[in-house]
Amino acid sequence: MTNGPSPDEGGAIARLTPDLVDMALDRLTLAIAGESRVDGVTILRRLRTLVDACVAERPTGAAQLGVLPEILGAAITLQYPLMELERYLDGERGDIGDPDRAAVYLSFVKHHLWRLEQLIRHLADATR
C-alpha cells in the first residue's frame, strides 16, 4: 500500500466524495453487467489509488492519530475486494467467477468506501 498525503494536505483525498463514490459504483455495476469492462478496470485502479492516498504517511495531531487506525483498517479492508473485482473485469482468474458474486463484492466495497469517506470527512472537520 502506498501512503499518500495527509488528509489536511488535500490532493487525492479531497476527491473521495460521496458523489465520486456513487458515480464510480454506478459505473462498476454497469461493468459487472457486461458494459465496458475496460472502463470498470480503470475505475477500480483509480479507486485503489484514492483509497491508498487516504492513509496519511506522517499523521500529525491528535485528530489524525485518533482516527488513523480506523482509516488504515478501512483502506486495508478495501484492497482485496477491489483487487478481485479488477481481476474479474479484466478476465483474469480469481475468487469471483460470475456477475452475482461480483455484485456481492461490490456491495462490500460500497459499504467500506462509504465508511472510509465518512472517516475522512470527520477528520477534515476535526482539523478545521
Task: Compile the SSE list and pairings.
Elements (H helix, E strand, L loop, with lengths): L17 H15 L4 H17 L7 H29 L9 H28 L2
Task: Give a brief rundown of this model.
By secondary structure, the chain is mostly helical. The chain has helices at residues 18-32, 37-53, 61-89, 99-126.
Separate helix tally? 4
Binned, the helix content reads 55-70%
- Tell me, briefly, the overall form: elongated
CATH architectural designation? Up-down Bundle
Biggest beta-sheet profile? none
Strand content: under 5%
Topology, number of strands: 0
Question: In sequence order, what are the helices and strands, one letter per element?
Answer: HHHH
CATH topology (level 3) name = Four Helix Bundle (Hemerythrin (Met), subunit A)
Structural class designation: mainly alpha
Rounded to the nearest angstrom, the radius of gyration is 15 Å
CATH class: Mainly Alpha
Number of domains: 1
Describe the structure.
The chain has helices at residues 18-32, 37-53, 61-89, 99-126. The longest helix is centred in the middle third of the chain and has 29 residues, at 61-89. With 128 residues, it is mainly alpha-helical. The chain starts with 17 loop residues before the first helix and ends with a helix. It has one domain (7-126): Four Helix Bundle (Hemerythrin (Met), subunit A) (Up-down Bundle). The radius of gyration is 15 Å and the shape is elongated.
